[in-house]
Design brief:
By secondary structure, the protein is an alpha+beta fold. The chain has 6 domains: 1-30; 35-120, no CATH class; 138-236; 243-420 and 481-497 and 661-700, no CATH class; 500-659, no CATH class; 709-834, SH3 type barrels (Roll). The strands form 8 sheets. Strands 18, 21, 22, 23, 24, 25, 26, 27 and 28 form a 9-stranded antiparallel β-sheet that branches. A 6-stranded mixed β-sheet has the order 7-8-12-11-10-15, sandwiched between helices. It has a 3-stranded antiparallel β-sheet with strand order 17-19-20, with no helix packed on it.
Length: 844
């Protein structure tokens, strides 16, 4: 964020280029002093030229002649230090920067009286003296080196340039710099000789200039080689070096390693950094019977460690395996990597969802993980987690910060692997990690049945039976999880939340919606696949919906082909896409589709009350029973059973959208991009872990925290310019042009708001939507919305809300007074203006 420092200017820019453009447009004039120069003799400022003229215009023309000769010309306006070698650039500069130079300019003159008058005039404090611009000393040298390091570590960690490319850049930049330096020193030498300096003085001056060259000092010193740069980065920044963990020898008698980034070192670096400190949030106070975040669930509330250590660190681990090469090519599974990341629940949800704030824990080849086992791969991690629980981290002020593992997120396959459960979901009798239901019970007449809950005691009993008897599996458990050795964590407490993306969007929703569409198209003949796909393709998606457009539906496919978010958007917008084609709105299959939409809306809620959880439980039971009756030949899948656990899991973990793995999976893209750009697979895990730690070192070097409120292109709010209706709506808020701005775009807690979007403003007797007309930022921190408020009317045929113009009124409201903060887009269908919800909103 760049705030304009000009007096009386409230502009805030989101980038350096925008700030420069703002200064060019609004603060372009140089500090000048009025001086009548019509009869003043002006002297050319070019060395060894004694030409004089009467008039500034003639002086400018004369200076252009010097440029044509190939000489360097300095701008004649006092206070401006711009230097030119191109005539057109000089002309452009004079016309843009000094538009009034004919009337208001101070040049170097040969008239001593004029010089005295100019020097006696009060000087603008914004123009520094030459003495003020002199920078010297070791502090500046260190600052210069740090900035050079920041540039190269950004190229290496964020832009993923290979070390060989960076080395080439360093060498070529130094060569070019030396050429320029040689030319400058030769010109300086000639100039000093013309000024009759002694040879000894000339040599001394040139040597001083050469010795004070910080660019060469950096590039022939710490930045000289890839090794020296890496060492400099480690000394300069908080670089968490990956630790090599020996796993053993493979079948070819080669040593195999996992690369572990010590969690304790990462956490200590985060706690010491002002950047990370600014991202931490204090423990909040929850509303009664409302679940807003993970610390509102029973898992947190019932954990004695978390209750005794209110300010402790709460870790969320995520593990998953991913391919870095073409999964269909000859190298498939050869370079498949198991990755473990962690995030902190101490940070706000919008910060946790940013992949830059997810920390790397471990990288290991999946083949080595399966061969050498959990104990070896996770040995260092478990040691650090135990120390964190028992002893904590000692800070610089000798205070101790403890922490514990809250949960381990992942898809079903990864969670079952880490927890020691069976990974066979198609034939195993016990396929659920939350209860002891069997496959035959699930396929019975009552699909909504739930088996006895798994507990730490039943888990312990099953693992003891495994040790006593010669069996490979007991109640779906194959071995004891190594993470159960932690004092305050157990995989059956529960410690492994579900993932919405895999269970619903790529599971239940994907299979069931494809089934329902087949019924509507093939059996009912309400539409065709061609019409459906044309509507999907031609629909005018808006805002975030346009970033994840649904995929076309393949006629003979058993499931939707889109990714998780694409399938989510497809179900949300399905009534708008084909609602007019549904000839019988009471058809059981159409009602089942709408019921699935309601279930998804509740599960994805950012905040959810306990009565809503109870209602969700009823909806899911009815849905599964109806689904089994209407489609007896299409068996329910294990993910349908996991859906039955969601109400209970929401009560235990809080809103499940806070723990879904799609954001963690986005972290994989960094490593995939890194591997493809570096093209070095010799020791891939080491390369990827080092590059990632370079990126984290670059991010932690920042000193400015992520602002809660970011605005773009703001201008003062002049109340007198607006209508009486607007004046009445903002009457009691105290908005003036001195304390309030009206930005075109505003971002609050990572969410962008724009004019024309809708927000839910009230949900008591009926739902109300506010259309954003104007965003107002008071005192650079308080965000208000001027909204045109509409009463929402529910359309049962679509299970959507629409608004009508006759219900509108103008209202101003602070953002904290909104029921739901998520911005929504509106769509016109059948003469109605629909506002599809992203998720269910909290009832008040």
């Amino acid at each position: 964020m760049f705030k304009c420092v000009a007096a009386g200017c409230k502009q805030v820019c989101t980038g350096y280029a925008a700030l420069k453009a703002h200064f060019y447009r609004h603060h372009n004039s140089m500090p000048t002093v009025a001086l009548d120069t019509s009869l003043t003799k002006l002297k050319c400022t070019v060395p060894l030229c004694n030409w004089q003229c009467e008039g500034i215009k003639a002086l400018v023309v004369h200076l252009k002649e010097h440029i044509v000769e190939g000489r360097q010309v300095t701008c004649p306006v006092k206070g401006c230090t711009s230097v030119f070698r191109v005539k057109s650039s000089f002309t452009s500069h004079i016309s843009r920067k000094h538009k009034n130079y004919l009337e208001n300019v101070i040049c170097e003159t040969s008239n001593e009286d004029t010089q005295s008058a100019a020097s006696a005039t009060t000087k603008d404090s914004s123009v520094p003296d030459a003495e003020d611009t002199v920078i010297d000393g070791p502090n500046f040298s260190d600052l210069y080196l740090r900035n050079v390091c920041m540039f190269y570590i950004k190229l290496q960690g964020q832009h993923l340039l290979p070390s060989s490319t960076i080395q080439n850049i360093v060498e070529e930049m130094q060569n070019i710099h030396e050429l320029g330096q040689t030319y400058s020193l030769n010109r300086l030498n000639l100039l000093l000789k013309e000024m009759s300096f002694a040879d000894e003085d000339i040599a001394k001056i040139c040597d001083t200039v050469k010795q004070s060259d910080l660019f060469s000092a950096c590039h022939t010193g710490p930045m000289r080689t890839a090794y020296s740069r890496a060492q400099c980065f480690k000394d300069m920044f908080k670089y968490g070096e990956p630790k090599k963990v020996l796993l053993g020898k493979d079948e070819d008698r080669k040593d195999r390693f996992a690369y572990y980034v010590p969690v304790l070192n990462t956490l200590k670096g985060m706690l010491d950094s002002k950047y990370w400190q600014g991202l931490m949030m204090a423990p909040g106070v929850s509303k009664a019977d409302v679940l807003s975040d993970c610390d509102d669930g029973k898992v947190f509330m019932s954990n004695v460690f978390f209750q005794e250590n209110q300010n402790c660190l709460k870790l969320v681990l995520y593990q998953d395996a991913f391919e870095v090469v073409n999964p269909l090519g000859s190298a498939k599974k050869k370079h498949k990597i198991l990755a473990v990341y962690f995030s902190l629940l101490n940070m706000p949800p919008h910060v946790r969802s940013n992949t830059d704030h997810m920390q790397l824990v471990l990288l290991c080849r999946e083949k080595d993980f399966k061969e050498f086992g959990h104990s070896r791969v996770f040995s260092e991690l478990l040691t650090d987690l135990k120390i964190l629980e028992e002893n904590g981290i000692t800070m610089a002020d000798e205070s101790v910060v403890k922490g514990a593992l809250y949960c381990i997120a992942g898809d079903n396959l990864g969670s079952h692997c880490i927890g020691g459960f069976t990974e066979n979901f198609s034939t195993s009798q016990y396929f659920c990690r939350y209860c002891l239901i069997t496959r035959s019970e699930f396929q019975s007449e009552n699909p909504a049945i739930i088996g006895p809950e798994r507990t730490p005691e039943t888990y312990q009993s099953a693992t003891e039976q495994l040790e006593r008897e010669d069996v490979t599996e007991v109640q779906g458990i194959k071995f004891r999880s190594v993470f159960n050795t932690l004092e305050n964590f157990n995989v059956c407490s529960p410690g492994m939340p579900p993932c919405l993306g895999h269970d619903i969007f790529e599971g239940v929703l994907s299979y069931d919606v494809a089934l329902y569409l087949k019924y509507m198209i093939v059996k009912k003949k309400w539409l065709t696949y061609t019409i459906l796909n044309r509507r999907i393709r031609q629909f005018k998606y808006k805002a975030t919906d346009a970033c994840s457009k649904p995929c076309a539906v393949t006629p003979k496919a058993l499931k939707l082909s889109g990714q998780a978010v694409q399938n989510w958007n497809f179900l949300r917008l399905l009534p708008l896409l084909i609602g007019d084609k549904v000839q019988d709105s009471q058809d059981d299959i159409w009602q089942l589709t709408l019921q699935l939409k309601d279930i998804v809306d509740l599960i994805c809620a950012q905040q959810i009350s306990k009565p809503q959880v109870a209602y969700l439980n009823v909806l899911i039971q009815e849905y599964l029973e109806t689904r089994k009756v209407l489609f007896p030949d299409n068996a329910l899948r294990p993910k349908h059973h996991y859906l039955q656990h969601y109400p209970g899991l929401i009560l235990k973990f809080g809103p499940l959208i806070r723990l879904w793995t799609m954001r963690f999976e986005s972290k994989h893209s960094y490593f995939k991009r890194c591997a493809r750009q570096l093209k070095n697979f010799k020791n891939l895990c080491l390369t990827l872990s080092e590059r990632h730690q370079m990126l984290q070192a670059f991010l932690s070097a920042g000193t400015v925290t992520l602002p809660t409120l970011q605005i773009k292109d703001g201008s003062p709010f002049y109340l007198e310019l607006y209508s009486e209706e607007v004046k009445g709506a903002v009457l009691h808020f105290g908005f003036t042009e001195n304390n309030t701005m009206t930005p075109t775009d505003v971002q609050y807690n990572g969410i962008t708001y724009k004019k024309g979007q809708f927000v839910v403003s009230r949900n008591d007797e009926s739902l109300e939507f506010g259309e954003l007309i104007l965003t107002l930022v008071k005192d650079e921190s308080a965000l208000h919305f001027l909204m045109r408020v509409y009463r929402g009317e529910f359309l049962p045929h679509y299970h959507m809300y629409f608004v009508k113009d006759e219900t509108r009124r103008l209202e101003c409201r602070h953002i904290s007074k909104l029921i739901d903060m998520w911005p929504l887009s509106s769509y016109i269908k059948d003469g109605n203006r629909f506002v599809p919800l992203k998720h269910s909103v909290l009832a008040v």
